[in-house]
Amino acid sequence: MKAESWGTRLGLILAMAGNAVGLGNFLRFPVQAVQNGGGAFIIPYLVCFLLMGIPLLWVEWSVGRFGGKKGIHSTPFILDAMDRRRFWKYIGVFGIFTNIAVASYYCYIESWTLSYVFHSIIGTFRGMSQAEVAQFFVDYTEIDKTTLGIPYEAIVFYILCLALNTWILSRGLAGIEKVAVVGVPLLLIFGAFLAFQGLTLGTSGATPEHPDANSWEGINFLWTPQYDSLLNPKVWLAAAGQIFFTLSVGMGTIQCYASYVRSKEDIALNATSAGFTNEFVEVVLGSLIVIPIAAGYLGIDWVRENAGFGMAFQTMPYLFDKWGALLGAIAGVFWFGLLFFAGITSSLAMGTPWVGFMQDEFRWTREKGALSFGLIILAFGLPTVLFFHQGVFDEYDYWGGTVSLVIFALIEIILFAWIFGIDKGWAELMEGSDIKVPIVYKYIIKYITPVLLLFVFLGSFISPPV
Ligand code: PHE
């Protein structure tokens, strides 16, 4: 088999940025922030980024390239190569199942974005009231109803979305790189355009029904720090979970992508660039779109009461429609198209650990690996599609998208810093590096990050999901 690697450095960074930048940045971050007290969330969030997110990124890139040098591209085998004991392999397998759990509901949201691009083009939302737009989403996800005369439209788009993922995955790295090189710049441009709207909307979206609407209140809500909840373990768990989710750490996807980095190529700077790009998109663009725009038309109280993945789908089409038929349709295609690109460059990343494992373990072809991934996601994802309103979706997100990531990250960092050994690990990170990572991070990786991870993990027992 010919050894695969990323085509160019830009391709690698964009693929990694595309992996990290996703629905998490635009949809999950605002929801987590609102549910955890707005400004109260931001400080734990930034602390988690510096003390857990960035160190874990370096760890995962190092682990990945280490495996790649040995010709291994799947997390179970990479972890296995780091120590003689057999059980590390199963930790890697646990990571693969986390990917499957997350991809199952993630691809469902991704399929909404596809469907909403379609509906923006055909003008479904023209002239709808806010209540009708919100109801459209409920009908759409309540799949016993027909939407627009198409029965089970949600399932149709879900399958379409999985088919697209499967097809691109089956084309390997080159396919992923191509999607990222086009998708990531596009989503940055669309995002900047919409963030500008969020910033400048102010009170001009207020109506007699929502006289208090004000986009700046949305921004203030997020960015006025509140210190009282810093002692609340639930906020810390949510902040850590969001950092892991948004950086895509704690599941094995980064290791897989990094295993295709050429053996002498830099990882420290690449990891840092991809991580900071993600944070820029999340804290700047992610915080200036959904919440300010929803607050700008419906008021901040509405936002507080309706925070959820569906929020953006229940509000944005109505807002766009106010810009007129043509501009509204264009904005709809921009926004949902942006979400689609953000989503697919991430869900492809979730597929690579599975496909890599099937190739390494069973010598399957990539095509067979990709097809089996699509079918498994279909099987695991259908409950989230069929029972969306019964809370199945939120359970997947809590267990798959928060708790599992923390557990995996904790075990992985122990392996890296204590068993593989921090000196060896640090040397791996620094090999071929284009930057000098401050040496203090060697100690952070060894002592601080694992202890914090342990606290966050234990904290999750004190504070079950709300
Ligand atoms: N980081 C992606 C996002 O923010 C989600 C993701 C998680 C992707 C884990 C890959 C692995 O949407």
TrEMBL record:
<feature type="transmembrane region" description="Helical">
    <location>
        <begin position="398"/>
        <end position="422"/>
    </location>
</feature>
<keyword id="KW-0812">Transmembrane</keyword>
<feature type="transmembrane region" description="Helical">
    <location>
        <begin position="235"/>
        <end position="260"/>
    </location>
</feature>
<protein>
    <recommendedName>
        <fullName>Sodium:calcium symporter</fullName>
    </recommendedName>
</protein>
<keyword id="KW-0472">Membrane</keyword>
<feature type="transmembrane region" description="Helical">
    <location>
        <begin position="87"/>
        <end position="106"/>
    </location>
</feature>
<keyword id="KW-1133">Transmembrane helix</keyword>
<feature type="transmembrane region" description="Helical">
    <location>
        <begin position="180"/>
        <end position="199"/>
    </location>
</feature>
<feature type="transmembrane region" description="Helical">
    <location>
        <begin position="38"/>
        <end position="59"/>
    </location>
</feature>
<feature type="transmembrane region" description="Helical">
    <location>
        <begin position="280"/>
        <end position="303"/>
    </location>
</feature>
<feature type="transmembrane region" description="Helical">
    <location>
        <begin position="370"/>
        <end position="392"/>
    </location>
</feature>
<feature type="transmembrane region" description="Helical">
    <location>
        <begin position="323"/>
        <end position="349"/>
    </location>
</feature>
<dbReference type="GO" id="GO:0016020">
    <property type="term" value="C:membrane"/>
</dbReference>
<feature type="transmembrane region" description="Helical">
    <location>
        <begin position="443"/>
        <end position="462"/>
    </location>
</feature>
<keyword id="KW-0813">Transport</keyword>
<feature type="transmembrane region" description="Helical">
    <location>
        <begin position="150"/>
        <end position="168"/>
    </location>
</feature>
